[in-house]
Amino acid sequence: MAKSVAAVVVVVVRSFLLCLFSSQIAATPTGIPSLRPRLPNDTLCNHLILPAGYPCSEHTVQTKDGYLLALHRVSSRTGNISEQRGPPVLLQHGLFMAGDAWFLDSPEQSLGFILADHGFDVWVGNVRGTRWSHGHVSLSEKDKDFWDWSWQELALHDLADVICYINSITNTKIFFVGHSQGTIMSLAAFTQPDIVEMVEAAALLCPISYLGHVSAPFVLRMVNMHLDQMILAMGIHELNFRSDWGIKLMDSICDGHVDCNDLLSSITGKNCCFNNSRVDFYLEYEPHPSSSKNLRHLFQMIRKGTFSKYDYGLFKNLKLYGQLKPPIFNLGHIPKSLPLWIAYGGNDDLADVTDLQHTLKELQYKPELLYLKNYGHVDFLLSVNAKKDVYDHMIRFFRSWGKSSSSY
């Protein structure tokens, strides 16, 4: 029973918009992982990348607002990480995940390993608050202010500063890959001229900007019960589904409201190719915490159907933004010069096709599209067939735009 509850929890937090703790995970008597302070060698490189035979180095990026983010650099098994020849590519994970998301399956199935083997200079981002990142220059993770952010800050600080760091190290434009929340971050960031000018091309998996047509029953249940407002009213600022209250919360939502025996489909839509036999292994790394404010921002988007900054209410909006409503992120400001490649699925209840069409109409550049009718939200990250179905197409796209395609 304990394992089944744990499996439900990890499916919930991975799948709910999928696509953030500095801790070492251990199993408690209930079977739900608990959190311990990280040891110096408790890094993503040491856990998943070096044991697979891939050179890996860890970098720390300080954001403009003081967060210390772990950034990992990965080379092919036959390469020298100090003498990369291929173009840099940044992988940006989704909600309740971290950089480990790109390495959870075998080297033949995981995008991070696959790109390294194709000669790319792979950089792996980890947003604030995740297990692999390193806190803040002055705030503790126990401080309320540490969690005072949403995907808006992840886009305009975390992603922006990581892209700038990679650009300064490699002295070249980067390729970008985002999944789910990683695509919200990128689409918002790419509306900023100083950020987008450092990007060669971008691949978006399950892209979400507009969320007005999310149809996942479990998600809609949480939106309708105003879970986001309830959590903040309770003074909970760190959204940690490994905590006792997080587990009880999931139980209360499932009780009589949603059939949690099929929870994955209730959150993401039906996934065709997810490897259920690896849930116990995924549970060693997922989920990562996020902020309650981030959840509220996403729920605001679902309720209002807008792609805009965080809504603080009329008076605070006027004080912070100079207007009563939060400013929109204008997708029309993403320049035509940025090539985009988008992969989406027919069974994805989070990245809805109708919402994607809304996004496409606002973009100046017509992206290349890959539609997989039987794919759900998780499949684009963890499908056993993703290399053939998705990643090979993505790599061909990058090669078509890379200035040094003959070298990778």
From TrEMBL:
Signal sequence bounds: 1-27
Keywords: Glycoprotein, Hydrolase, Lipid degradation, Lipid metabolism, Signal
GO BP, one annotated term: lipid catabolic process
Pfam families reported for this sequence: Abhydro_lipase
Active site (catalytic residues): 180, 348, 377
Residues covered by the Partial AB-hydrolase lipase domain: 47-104
GO MF annotations in UniProt: hydrolase activity, acting on ester bonds
Family of the protein in this entry: Belongs to the AB hydrolase superfamily. Lipase family.
PANTHER family reported for this sequence: LYSOSOMAL ACID LIPASE-RELATED (PTHR11005)
Protein name, per record: Lipase
UniProt source species: Quercus suber
Annotated gene: LIP1_0
